[in-house]
Amino acid sequence: MSRPWIAGVLTGLLLLTACGDPSSGPETASTPSSPATASTTHQRPAATPGGSGTPGASAGARTDASAGRSGPRPTVLYLGDSLAMENQKVLGGLLRDETRARYTSAPYSGTTLCDYLEGTREDSLVPPKDKAAALVRRLRPDFVVLQFWGNAWGYTPCMDGITYDKQRDKYFARYTADAGRLTDQIAGASAGAKIVWVLQGPDPITPDRVRRVNAVYERQARASGDLLADAGKAVSAASARYTWAQYLPCTAYEREHGPYCTQPGSGRTALHRDDDYLHFCLAPTTSTPKPCPVRSPGILRITRAISRTIGRAVAPAAD
């Protein structure tokens, strides 16, 4: 392994913890029926992808195209790590436009499943008020979207030092157990909320780890009757689901909406920055982590996969 590649890997690991912002608190759409709590910031989600400016720039001014739609109006809670942090505003905008959802997001960087469990260690990266079950009891969501890349190197205290590179069997056993515990806690706190497990995209360093993490989600969803959103497939080559790629061919939507096809001359679009193989935000990371501030094809692909999964569940006859 060359030194530049090692440096890139280390940069990616550091950036994983930099893309989430535990101090920001949850975000929710400012709908009249959105629950008002001390930990919730009320604001409108990002503008629909394809509008002008950066995500969120036109949200306050645009017409609510979904206002006249009839049918179920779901409540959605989005939890996860730094990938969820960078995605959260775009997902909120899509869900609001496509399903008129009441939406709350509460991602924390560097976290994994155990951080959202109630009854974990005091040094957990998620405070008690934002544990999954606590938020479910307060918000009463119809869907709880869980997006976790799978913390693999011991950064998360609640993993008790169990890492993929040193204790692989123990890592997957613990991850499987935590998926079951988190499912049980959400079910116990809700009145029939469906969990949406988000399948992850390729990892160039540990491709088999991501494959097996996704398998944990698939087994858990089958066992509990929950849902899967294969967002990772949307950021993978058509013929190589677990082969990492920095660039992929532009989709028809991306070609029609110029900012999303970053290299129109070659028909390719960028999913990752040169200095970050893990995240999909095309803006540089900052010392104050926050949702991605620029249009990023990978984020749009991922969030559209999640939104479609919820849309099909809300109105299956229209699929």
Strand order, largest beta sheet = 2-1-4-3-5-6-7
The number of E-state strands comes to 9
Biggest beta sheet summary: 7 strands, mixed
**What fraction of the residues are assigned to beta strands by DSSP?**
5-15%
Written as H for each helix and E for each strand, in order along the chain, the element string is: HEEEHEHEHEHEHEHEH
Q: Average pLDDT across residues? A: 82
In terms of quaternary structure, what is this?
single chain
Instruction: Find the structural class using helix and strand composition.
Output: alpha/beta
Categorize the overall geometry. Answer: globular
The stretches of 5 or more residues where confidence is low (pLDDT under 50) are 1-68
Helical content, roughly? Answer: 25-40%
Structural Rg: 18 Å
Count of helix runs? 8
In whole angstroms, the N-to-C terminal distance is 46 Å
Q: How does the SSE layout of this entry go?
A:
Blueprint: H1 3-18, E1 27-28, E2 41-42, E3 75-80, H2 82-99, E4 102-105, H3 132-139, E5 143-147, H4 168-189, E6 194-198, H5 207-224, E7 227-229, H6 231-234, E8 247-249, H7 252-256, E9 268-270, H8 297-314
Helix pairs in contact: 2-8, 3-4, 4-5
Describe this structure in words.
This protein has about 325 residues and is α/β, with parallel strands linked by helices. Helices cover about 35% and strands about 10% of the residues. The protein is built from eight helices and nine strands. The termini are far apart.
